[in-house]
Amino acid sequence: MSGFDLTGLTASFGGERVIGPLSLSVREGDRVALVGRSGAGKSTLISLIHQQVQGHSSLVPQNLGLVNALQVFHNVYMGRLDANATWYNTLTLIRPFAKDAREVKALLSELGMPEKVWIPAASLSGGQRQRVAIARALYRNSDLLLADEPVSALDGPSAHMVMKLLKQRFRTSVIALHDVELALAYCTRIVGIQNGQIALDEPSEKLTPADIMPLY
Amino acid sequence: MLSSPTVRASLIFTAVALVGLVFADIAITAANPWKDLGRFFLGVVTPDFFSTEGLATALLRTVAFAFVGVALGSVCGFLLALVYRAYPVRIFCAFIRAIHELFWALIFLQFFGFHPLTGVLAIAIPYSGIFAKVYSEILEEADPEPGRLLPPGTGVVSAFLYARIPDCWVQMRTYTAYRLECGLRSSAILGFVGLPTLGFYLESAFSQGHYSDAGAMLILFYVLIATLPLWVRPKLLPVYVLGAPFFLGDGMPIVWGNVARFFTQDIVPAPLKGEEGWSGMGTWLGDLFITQALPGIWNTVILTQIALVATGIIALLAFPLISTHFGGPVRRTSGHVFLVILRSTPEYILAYILLQLWGPSMLPAVVALALHNGGIIGHLIGRQSSSIVLRPDAPTGLDRYTYELVPRVYRSFLAFLFYRWEIIMRETAILGILGIYTLGFYVDSAIQNIQFDKAMVLILITASLNIGVDILGRFIRKKLALQTMPTC
Question: What is the rounded CA–CA span in Å between residue B204 and residue B192?
């Protein structure tokens, strides 16, 4: 079960309502792209969904949430800390097991950065950091992907590669994207957010970039 | 300029110190102070490293006590930091760190005697309180985002190890290393109450007029602290920590009967032991307060306020010595050496030396406190001033100092000064043991007269005074919106 229903959703910052009230229902197999101007409430909506599903999702937040002092391996491994016993996690912190190292390295190879596995996250470039956060979400291997601008720091070909990978690995996803082309190419459903409200909700095959532009 | 709150605060504190000077006992009472000072400096430049065989042992013991005490303190402090949110824990930590290492040593000496445990606990207990506070501040500042991203069902320990510790690790390591340096100083002065560390040999060398021996000890101590980064390596640390307990010396065995007697009889207030009971407590406490606590508090506060302002003046004068905006590399290097010496000499040793040379009065204490603390703040401010980028046509010389640099560093200067206020007061109280009439003097006399009940009450009063000044210092820093980092 990876779909969810949200009704009467609201969020306020400092007494000012930024989201809702809105309702959104996502069924298993939906690939939702959240589009809209910056500040429209996309990030808030993503974190609200994250709370609503009680963390049972692979999340790529906009600020990535990497632990800078840890190596890339451990940052990726953190996606599955719940799957292992505490003693196993503690040992892994000191000396990773070969099985996990292989798995993480394979993931990083798919993202085009296998040589970075033992490098501290602090010394990575912006694009590399973003891919580490994506690797963590992939390693987490949950049914639902929640991602906030996951390819904003990547160049064109890498962005396509990552979006393709995310499409392959996650049956259900909600991705905030400001790139309309990517949204139409990799998502099945476009949800436009304007002033904290849903202003558009259509299957992507019915839409062209021109239909989405008024939102910006 | 008078409208600036920081300037007004500075002027008020200066005025208080000037009024304090009227009441303070400032004098050079020694018959021949300059000749003695000359002989001391002659001793420092002609050090004799081989006269006392005890020198090497004293250094070894100093290092061993520092390592065991700081290691134990950091482990306990870390555990306390995990529950630091609880109010009783905060109070407990504030209380144990408000009592100086030497006071703890004096307490433990009464029932553990000259057992190594006395020295270890004297360092470990106050350091636990300090570590708990600083570690918890560091842990609180860690980025909370990675923790929020963890899959639900992640164990508490795993979450802490992955999402919390790595972010704080470098800062905690830096702070612990800094504390180790402080621990070496604490360990050295524990010798002044009879433990087998450097202070013990320094005192005996001084009392016999062996200035070259004293000079050798001081020089070795500076070398020990200055080379700390070279011999304290992360990989060697387990070796040191595990090995240190074996080099504490044997001391004297603990007599457990003394321990029991101390808690059941010695520290019970005299009226409760006698026939008067609780009805006699009022007069007993009142008498103690008027004859000892009040004069002790009065002298401690006066001395603290004078030393605080003197510290500020020294710091402002000293920071250009290492600032890149003045002088060439030669002057800066000598400035660095000078400030490292000021910083590495414990104020207690400095006060002891000056007291031997100038005779008893508040003057040696003020000078010692001002030189040590002024050296520390001057070093920090100097380093900060070097990171300021001046416009190419900025004025030079005194104009550069007064117009470009001092206004820019003044706020952090004040922040450091108010942060050290409580530390200066804690030290002022303890300098009483050397014969200046601050609270430490009355504590020490009570112990010498075997009146441990009175000594405990006086120590409690000293601790409350320190906590009060700490709270006041924090209030003023908040009021003036001054920020500071814990490593100072």
Answer: 10
Query: ipTM score of the complex?
Result: 0.75
The answer on pLDDT for B88 being more than 90 is yes
Structure tokens at B461: 């009063």
- Tens digit of each residue's pLDDT (9 = 90 or more) over B21-35: 998 888 887 777 788
Architecture (CATH level 2) of domain B1-30+271-488: Orthogonal Bundle (1.10)
Closest CA to B63 of B240, B252, B242: B240
pLDDT digits (tens, 9 = 90+) for B185-243: 999 999 998 899 999 988 888 888 888 888 888 888 988 888 888 988 888 888 998 98
Average pLDDT, chain B: 88
Question: Cα separation of B37 and B255, whole Å?
Answer: 43
Q: How confident is the model at residue B389 (pLDDT cuts 50, 70, 90)?
A: confident
| Closest in A79, A81, A84 to B159, CB measured | A81
What integer pLDDT is reported at residue B431 of this predicted model?
Answer: 93
Q: How far apart are CA A36 and CA A42, in angstroms?
A: 7
> Does the beta carbon of A126 lie under 8 angstroms from any beta carbon of chain B?
no
CA angle B15, B18, B24 (to 5 degrees): 140
Distance from CA of B148 to the nearest CA of A (A): 9
For domain B50-266, give the fold.
MetI-like fold (1.10.3720)
Tell me whether A122 touches chain B (CB under 8 Å). no
Residue B61 is encoded by which pair of tokens?
């013991």
Domains and CATH numbers, chain A: 1-57+143-216 (3.40.50.300), 66-141 (no CATH)
Determine whether the interchain pair B151/A63 forms a contact, defined as Cβ–Cβ distance below 8 Å: no
Contact B155 A89 (CB under 8 A): yes
Asked if residues B129 and B93 have their Cβ atoms less than 8 Å apart, the reply is yes
Chain A residues within an 8 Å CB radius of B171: none
Name the pTM for this structure. 0.82
